[in-house]
Amino acid sequence: MSVRRTVVTRYPTPATRGSEDPQANPVTSRETMQAARRVVVKIGSSSLTTPDGLDVAAIDRLVDVLAAERQKGTQVVLVSSGAIAAGFPHLGLGRRPKDTATQQASAAVGQSKLMAHYTTSFGRHDTEVAQVLLTAEELMRRTQYTNAHRALSRLLTLDVMPIVNENDAVATREIRFGDNDRLAALTANLCKADLLVLLSDVDALYTGHPSHPDARRIPEVTSDDDLAGVDVRVPGSAGVGTGGMVTKVDAAGIAATTGIPTLLTSAANAGAAFAGEDVGTWFSATGRRRSARAAWLGLTAEVRGRLVIDDGAVAGAIDRGRSLLAAGITGCTGDFTPGDVVEIVDAHGRVRARGLVQYSSSQLPAMLGRTTADLRQDLGAGYDGVVVHADDWVRLTPPQR
Ligand SMILES: Nc1ncnc2c1ncn2[C@@H]1O[C@H](COP(=O)(O)OP(=O)(O)O)[C@@H](O)[C@H]1O
Ligand SMILES: N[C@@H](CCC(=O)OP(=O)(O)O)C(=O)O
């Protein structure tokens, strides 16, 4: 089976942050790479560890590359995996644990070893590091999302090197990133990065598993068509990463639709990539850049319910960026209160938007399909008919099932 992943891009790469129309200012991918002023770099477990624990030489090489970028004035946020892989050998375990409790214990041991070495290694470049541990659950809440955004921004202005990982010791099985690729894409949004760099043990995305003799490097992904027939199913052989290529392609898709290009390559190629050489796979940005609020709404917020809308509401509200009125809503499910995030679904079951609802799940059913004039009789003359205000929803492109 081949896969078509979620990267949807029809355009060349937008030049820099703030480019509204991706076609307005096309530049080559390598120029974008060098022009980026704020970069999120993610490195996977397989590139940081050996079966015995931390690979300190590999970490030092990465740190040297990132320090050189910082020296040029680029702000860098590192998303580093490796806590579990660095920890389990010290617990006398021969392989990566599968149960949650032992993973948590391994991560708790490994995370401190990881940070200890990053501190030493960046210290060679007189650079302060900061540990930022995030959970998916926290990023789903507006307040915590804003706090994380503020903390990362402040660290960057203080010239500190933030090193982000999932808070594996407390993350619950049900709600977690698991792999760090998605966390990296969300972090890129969180700190408004110009570029996401995913470093792995493989130098690029290939048409099939790299060990396959027919597999060819894919230098650039500019549209969904470039991913047709690409096989990403086989996991890495190191046995310590969790996501494999599937989560990297998905993460690049998240970044692309929120206006952030991604370069995927190996840790060994990191220096060459930053030097603008033609290495790895470049995923062009597609969608427009979003505010942190819109990114939160569209990507991470906890969804508490669903509103089903008719074709008229799709044309009148979603397509034209207007408020969603009760008259266009045909159904609702979930348990929500005013201010919660709901999905806005069309008659074909496609999620078209996410927004903040103004009524609770107990109030809304009685309002469905009713005109504003009709509802004013029940709710008073001040009632404006708005269920989701135009400023409070974000379109999902492409629509999701
Ligand atoms: N189409 C593909 N192109 C490149 N690598 C692939 C592909 N399909 C599967 N892989 C595997 O994905 C691995 C990278 O994923 P993973 O081990 O999770 O890395 P990391 O620990 O860096 O996140 C590669 O080592 C490779 O074996
Ligand atoms: N947060 C986890 C990351 C898990 C993991 O293996 O991620 P990755 O190597 O990026 O596929 C850790 O630090 O061990």
Automatic annotation (TrEMBL):
Protein name per the record: Glutamate 5-kinase
Pathways per UniProt: Amino-acid biosynthesis; L-proline biosynthesis; L-glutamate 5-semialdehyde from L-glutamate: step 1/2
NCBIfam families per record: proB
Gene it is expressed from: proB
Gene Ontology CC terms, in alphabetical order: cytosol
Native organism: Micrococcus luteus (strain ATCC 4698 / DSM 20030 / JCM 1464 / CCM 169 / CCUG 5858 / IAM 1056 / NBRC 3333 / NCIMB 9278 / NCTC 2665 / VKM Ac-2230)
Keyword vocabulary terms for this entry: Amino-acid biosynthesis, ATP-binding, Cytoplasm, Kinase, Nucleotide-binding, Proline biosynthesis, Transferase
CDD domains in UniProt: AAK_G5K_ProB, PUA_G5K
Any one Gene Ontology BP term: L-proline biosynthetic process
